[in-house]
Design brief:
Number of domains of chain B: 2
Radius of gyration of chain B: 23 Å
Number of strands of chain B: 23
Largest interface: A-B, 71 and 87 residues
Radius of gyration of chain A: 25 Å
CATH superfamily of the largest domain in chain B: FAD/NAD(P)-binding domain
Shape of chain B: globular
Mean pLDDT of chain B: 97
Strand order of the largest sheet of chain A: 2-1-5-3-4
Structural class of chain B: alpha/beta
Number of strands of chain A: 5
InterPro entries (chain A): 2Fe-2S_ferredoxin-like_sf, 2Fe-2S_ferredoxin-type, 2Fe2S_fd_BS, 4Fe4S_Fe-S-bd, 4Fe4S_Fe_S_CS
Protein name (chain A): 2Fe-2S iron-sulfur cluster binding domain-containing protein
Low-confidence stretches of chain B: none
Low-confidence stretches of chain A: none
Organism (chain A): Mediterraneibacter catenae
Strand content of chain B: 15-25%
Shape of chain A: flat
Pfam family, one (chain A): Fer2_4
Mean pLDDT of chain A: 97
Oligomer: heterodimer
Helix content of chain A: 25-40%
Keywords (chain A): Iron, Iron-sulfur, Metal-binding
Order of helices and strands of chain A: EEHEEEHHHHHHHHH
Distance between the termini of chain B: 29 Å
Strand content of chain A: 5-15%
CATH architecture of the largest domain in chain B: 3-Layer(bba) Sandwich
Chain lengths: ~220, ~525
């Protein structure tokens, strides 16, 4: 007999094998998931979930695909949350402090409660990256928010109604495009290709018979 | 945590670690690789394949599960859908909201076309989001697109279509530049030089990465750009069939609202199939690293309209899927773990092969270790081999794992396995569809001249095996090209009267062949609910 636990999906009780994740337990219970299920491996943020263990006060957030079921777990999935993404033209904006004031002014209403950080399913220091954004320290904001998967649990819990994942995306795009130094070797290689420097060489290798390609491939030098 | 039996084996791994460090295991010869593949690669298991009995690839083989869908009828045969009641009317219809679809939509929008994305789940719910290790491009001084071509062509067993592979490697640096200019944060040193590593089968260090969130960083940037451009995205809206016109062109698609199950009609001058892969078909019972919607839908849609498949019989099993714990069974352990120094080690603590052979060879080597050689480590769901992750920090210094592969560290820490101190258990997982719909160099299918395909749904770019980092690359290169080509083509397309005659014709063909699976296709979602299994 498998080791079973009792869990409650949207308040309804099910007995499920104890080694399942919340997501696979829902499927075991008979759900055909449409909402609240994406990559199933912790990278997409589709399966944001809130739960409370029966008899305990604490309300927890997690990803359904990355969290094992527990006895007495009351589960509600949050398959969609209306985070507020502002639109902008990446070519027109600059990595200046006022861009956050223009696009996401509510970050300056942060009351420092740290509920976002406590809610983060990736264990990121969310309040800290919002603080960096407030100060226009985009590179630090980008680094601190880098592992964000956009599940939105932070925003669900925020009394200042901040859309934290959107702030992180903006900071990362500003960093990637404007702050990180240019890769000169990349720029040069693109120019060489556009200039036609490799056209003849690539044509030559495309024309080679398979036997010759096998010879070249099997004896190619591999960088240490 | 590991079982006592596993911990016994860990002791052996620890005992040999110091002497293994700094000794690169020998690479196999071409003959050794061939023999290994023939004996152990799942593609060579004949009983797992069946013959396709209808359509352009009639007489060829494909995985049984795919053949079943190819042999099933359209769900629209039994439905009354008025295709002349048009809900969306666009120049370019992009089916699929992953990296290829988003790239295509951005470029079509840039070219001034009226473009929309329809996607089964949400935009970004795609294998792109889950790609961890990196993206290849020959942009270093010791490298060239020609060297990249040689690596990919050989790694794909000399079967790639040269015209497609040429585009992949020649346009790779430009793809990286485009992403960088959209704001993708690549790993760079303080001078701006890209930090690049090896992948399995590369002869130069050309793997660009964004920690081990490479695909996620690319996908969330592309998604943000699609939204900034206010390109319409219909989420939870799945294409269930293509629509034809009386001139033999594609004219749009019948869509279904996945939640309400209502049908909708999208009319379009050009259609781009960017529906991705097929991991959720679980060929040969393998677990998969793919996202929930990876069910080969686009292959079925295109095939039913007469577009041929190419290399539909070759599947990539990623050598290192999670073998333990069972909660994350089959999840991807990025090849980058090996790029930064972890060796493949058997139950006795022996490094049994070079860690960076191509994926098909590495997967076969692990299967051999666990079967014929009996040197795997037992797990509740089968067996696996060790990936000796503590080596990474002995080579790269303390903190390397957290800095370079934070997603992996996080995934295992949730199950109290600290990969900085303990090795992890891996076994091959169904990862990538090498084959797909056949296209020409410009992205169009060869039989319908306003139907395009991009991304994992394409066959022929990589041949019969794909190198790490060439898929993130192909979705960008071929996604962008498809968007541009579709926008240009749309200017010259005049649509005739729309119909679904090809569905009837396909049904006739199945009937004549005496085939009745009793199912409909495309699959749309895997059957995971207990009562459906």
């Amino acid at each position: 007999m498998e080791n079973m636990v009792n869990v409650y999906f949207f308040g309804k009780k099910y007995s499920v094998p104890a080694d399942l994740t919340i997501m696979t337990a829902m499927e075991y219970a008979g759900y055909t998931l449409k909402r609240g299920c994406g990559c199933r491996h912790g990278f997409c943020g589709a399966c944001a979930t809130i739960y409370r263990i029966k008899g305990k006060n604490e309300l927890k957030t997690c990803l359904a695909c990355q969290t094992q079921v527990e006895e007495g777990m009351y589960v509600a999935t949050v398959p969609f949350f209306p985070t507020d993404k502002r639109t902008y033209d990446i070519e027109d904006i600059k990595p200046e402090q006022r861009i956050m004031m223009d696009l996401y002014p509510e970050i300056y209403s942060c009351i420092g409660c740290n509920a976002c950080t406590k809610a983060c399913t990736q264990d990121l220091n969310v309040m800290q990256y919002i603080a960096y954004a407030q100060r226009g320290e985009f590179e630090k904001c980008a680094e601190e928010s880098f592992d964000c998967i956009g599940c939105g649990c932070c925003s669900v819990r925020c009394p200042a109604e901040i859309s934290h994942p959107m702030v992180g995306v903006l900071a990362r795009r500003l960093t990637g495009k404007y702050i990180a130094p240019e890769s000169k070797h990349l720029t040069e290689r693109v120019e060489e290709i556009h200039h036609g420097d490799y056209d003849q060489l690539i044509e030559q290798i495309m024309q080679k018979p398979i036997e010759e390609m096998q010879e070249l491939y099997n004896n190619r030098e591999i960088e240490k | 945590m590991f079982t006592p039996e596993m911990m016994e084996s860990v002791k052996k791994v620890e005992a040999t670690r110091a002497q293994r460090l700094g000794v690169e295991p020998r690479r196999m010869t071409a003959d050794e690789k061939d023999a290994l593949l023939k004996e152990f690669h799942p593609d060579y298991r004949e009983e797992a394949f069946a013959e396709i009995k209808v359509g352009p690839n009639k007489g060829q083989k494909a995985p049984k599960e795919l053949v079943h869908l190819l042999h099933s009828n359209s769900r629209l045969l039994a439905e009354k859908v008025d295709i002349n009641k048009v809900d969306y009317d666009v120049d370019v219809l992009v089916i699929g909201g992953g990296g290829a679809g988003a790239s295509a939509a951005i470029e079509a929008n840039e070219a001034g076309a009226n473009v929309m994305i329809v996607t089964k789940l949400r935009i970004g719910d795609a294998n792109t989001m889950m790609a961890e290790g990196g993206i290849q491009a020959a942009d270093k001084e010791n490298d060239s697109p020609v060297q990249h071509y040689l690596d990919a062509f050989g790694g794909g067993h000399f079967a790639a279509r040269p015209e497609l592979l040429r585009r992949l490697v020649m346009e790779a640096p430009d793809a990286i530049k485009w992403l960088n200019e959209l704001g993708v944060m690549f790993d760079k040193d303080e001078t701006g030089r890209m930090i690049t590593t090896h992948g399995g089968g590369t002869s130069r260090k050309r793997m660009h990465a964004c920690k081990d969130y490479s695909g996620a960083e690319i996908m969330r940037t592309l998604r943000d750009e699609v939204l900034n451009r206010q390109i319409p995205v219909a989420e939870f809206t799945v294409a269930v069939e293509l629509i034809r016109d009386d001139r033999g062109q594609v004219a749009g698609a019948v869509l279904q609202n996945l939640e309400t199950e209502d049908y909708l009609v999208a009319k379009a001058k050009t259609v781009i199939i960017a529906t991705g892969g097929a991991g959720r078909m679980h060929y040969q019972g393998f677990p998969t690293s793919n996202h929930y919607g990876a069910t080969a839908d686009g292959l079925i849609l295109g095939y039913r309209m007469g577009a041929p498949l190419l290399y539909q019989d070759t599947i990539q099993y990623h050598p290192t899927g999670v073998a333990f714990p069972s909660q994350i069974f089959g999840a991807l352990v990025t090849e980058k773990v090996r790029s930064v120094g972890a060796q493949l080690v058997n139950v006795d603590g022996e490094a049994f092969m070079h860690p960076l052979e191509t994926r098909d060879v590495a997967a076969s080597g692990i299967i051999r270790e666990c079967t014929a050689r009996g040197k795997g480590v037992n797990t509740p769901l089968g067996s696996g081999v060790w990936l000796d992750t503590p080596m990474i920090e002995m080579i790269g210094g303390p903190g390397t794992i957290e800095k370079r592969i934070p997603a992996m560290l996080r995934m295992y820490m949730k199950y109290d396995i600290d990969m900085r101190k303990l090795p992890i258990l891996v076994y091959p997982t169904l990862h990538y569809q090498n084959g797909g719909l056949e296209i020409g160099g410009d992205g169009f299918t060869k039989v319908i001249d306003n139907l395009l395909v991009a991304g994992e749904a394409v066959g022929g770019i990589h041949g019969r095996n794909r190198l790490m980092g060439n898929s993130l690359l192909d979705i960008i290169v071929f996604g962008r090209n498809a968007g541009k080509a579709a926008a240009a083509k749309a200017k010259n397309v005049e649509l005739g009267n729309m119909n679904l005659d090809h569905i009837q014709a396909y049904a006739e063909e199945l009937k004549e062949a005496g085939i009745d699976t009793g199912d409909v296709s495309p699959l749309l979602l895997p059957k995971y609910a207990r009562h459906e299994r």
